[in-house]
Each structure stands twice: as C-alpha cells, then as structure tokens.
Amino acid sequence: MARVGLTTERLVRAGAELADEVGFDQVTASALARRFDVKVASLYAHVKSSQDLKTRIALLALEELADQVADALAGRAGKDALAAFANAYRDYARRHPGRYAAAQLRLDPETAAASAGVRHAHMTRAILRGYDLGEPDQTHAVRMLGSVFHGYVSLEASGGFSHTAVDPQDSWAWIIDSLDALLQNRTAS
Amino acid sequence: MARVGLTTERLVRAGAELADEVGFDQVTASALARRFDVKVASLYAHVKSSQDLKTRIALLALEELADQVADALAGRAGKDALAAFANAYRDYARRHPGRYAAAQLRLDPETAAASAGVRHAHMTRAILRGYDLGEPDQTHAVRMLGSVFHGYVSLEASGGFSHTAVDPQDSWAWIIDSLDALLQNRTAS
DNA sequence: GACGCTTGCCTAAAGGCATTAGGCAACTCC
DNA sequence: GGAGTTGCCTAATGCCTTTAGGCAAGCGTC
Hints:
Two copies of one chain form a homodimer.
Chain A: H1 8-22, H2 29-36, H3 50-73, H4 78-95, H5 97-103, H6 109-113, H7 117-128, H8 137-157, H9 168-188
The structure holds a DNA duplex (30 and 30 nucleotides).
C-alpha cells in the first residue's frame, strides 16, 4: 500500500479548503479521508479527533485573517485604517467562507488565549487610537466594531441581504462612513 | 404499547426546548425520541426528516421572536422604539440561545418568504420611520441595525466579551445611544 | 359490549460518521 | 541487506438517520 504522506499540517490545510468548498460543518474526518484516498482510521495518527481537526482549522483561519488584517492596516490611521480593517475582514470572509465560519468556533479559554484571536483584539484597539477614546468607551467601541463587522459579514453570507436591490457594497461603504462619523462624535464628548 | 400522543407540534416544541438546553446543533431525532421515551423511527410519522424538524424549530423561533419584538415596539417611536427593539432581540437570544441559533438557520427562499422573517424586516423598517431616512439610506440603515444586533448577540453568546471587565450591559446601552445619534445625524444630511 | 378500521408506535435493516485496537508492509538508517 | 520505526490498513463498536413492514391501541359502528 503506497504511503500518501499525511501530516497534521496537510490535513488541516486540506480541511480548510474543504470547508471553503462545502461548508465548515461538512468538514468530516470521512470526507477528508476520501480526499486523500485513504481510510478514515489513518487520520487518527495525525489528529486526535474530529474536534481537534476543526479546532486546528479554526486556528489556521484566525492566523490567516490576522495576517491579512495586519497587512491591510500597515501604514494607515484614522478612517483609512477603519476602512482597511473592515475590508480585509469582509474580503477574507467572502473569499474563504468555510475558514471564516471556522474562525467563529468556540475555543476553550486556553486555546483562545494562545490563538491569533489576541492579535485581532489588539488590532481593533489599534484602530481606535485614531479616535482618542478613553475607557470604558474604547471597550464599548471595540465591541461595536466587532459586532457590526461580524454581523454584516455573517448576514451577507447567509443570504440575508439578497431580498433588496441595494448593492451590499454600497451599504458596506455607508456603514463604514457612519462608524467613522460616530467615533469622531464620541471623541468630541 | 401505550401511545404517547406525538404530534408535529409537540415534537417541534420539545425540540425548541432541547435546543435551549443543549444547543441547536445537538438537537437530533434520537435525542428527541429519548425525551419522549419513544423509538426514533416513530418520529418520522410526524416530521419528514431531521432537517425538516430543524426548519420547523427555526420557524417557531422566528415567529416567537417577531411576536416579542412586536410587543416591545407597540406604542413606541424614535429612540424608545430602537431601544425596545434591540432589547427584545437580545433578551430573546439570552433567554433562548438554542432557539436563537435556530432562527439563524439558512432557509430556502420560499420557506423564508413565508416565515416570520418578513415581519422582522418590516419592524426594522418601522423603527426607522422615526428618523426620516430616504432610500437607499434606509436600506443601509436596516442592514446596519441587523448587523449590530445580530453580531453583538452572537459574539456575546460565544463568550467573545468575557475577556474584559466592562459590563456587556453597559456596552449595549452605549451602542444603542450611538446608533440613535448616528441615525439622527444621517437624517440631517 | 363485540366488531372492524385506522393509525400510532414498534421491530428490522441498511448506510454514514467517529473512534479505538491491533497488524502488516513500506520506508530509514546503519 | 537487515532491523526498527511508523504509516496506513482491517476489524469492530457505537451513535445517528432513514425506510419498510407489522402489530395492536383506540376510534366509530352496530
């Protein structure tokens, strides 16, 4: 029997691709085994369980997303940074819907603390530097930005915006404008 | 063998309760059969499939949520209405996490069109009457409100706000304030 | 109250995914 | 080329879904 050369790394990457193709919840050990033309049991030498596999895909997605956001953010500030952050986020979700779904997986606290999720939190706060908010306003604003971006992207992905003729791209731009204005107002107060 | 008196109705209600207790994705025909102390196959006389069951739970949740939002909205306008809408939404999600998750289920277009989702859309637009926005601004605003509320509630549910000491209730109030201010500004323009 | 008829719930069976235990053969390194 | 490691396989168990066919509980009728 020829050896295919499975590794945890390759399984996780293939799992991420599979997620983008058929949806994160359709990522199963069986499907992955089929993709490598290998028996399911063979995977268990490389990942502890199906849950382990999904967690690893989530961590990969968080990492990739953080990298792309960091890239987009480099050298920008204020509204520019806000828009770059928002767009990087949305673009990733559209390009990699399965990975994006994976990134929402609930991680246990230790795993989360060691994940790129921490970088996300930092970068969101970094954007707000341009608006000069004190605490607790800054935390409120972080939560609001996270909510809007995540909410928009996930509603868009689930087809929630397809009932109206208005271009989602226009709404997105309008929302970013609005958030910028809102944050500037909050700075004043 | 005693007859338990299964009906589609009872199965859906029990499924919704089960969802709140153990999570929507743990709602399985098997678990439901156990709850009624009945064999799994017996359920198939009342629901077409596991998917059918989940869809019905989703429709129930949408209906309940729309009812509660409508209640909260009655007799209110402007910021009052905005806050009532937001709170009804969040309260429902907190009280019924499984049902709320069910309400996010992707429905096929016809089912969605016949669901209470339509009432949700209407009510969201109704709130905006207090802010006198034209099109396409109104659609943008509907999308933004939906995004913020859904995003906040779902991040809160997945534990995303537990890393900071700031009370989520305060952030929620801050966000509603901000949205009200934002919409008033948009009216001016 | 006995009779049949509907129909609710059951048994049986097949197929899919997850997981573990143990085996053999394919690489690796001397 | 031989010894040892290890990668992938077979086998088996358990849970979930779904369909087909059977029996009896409860209904209405006389």
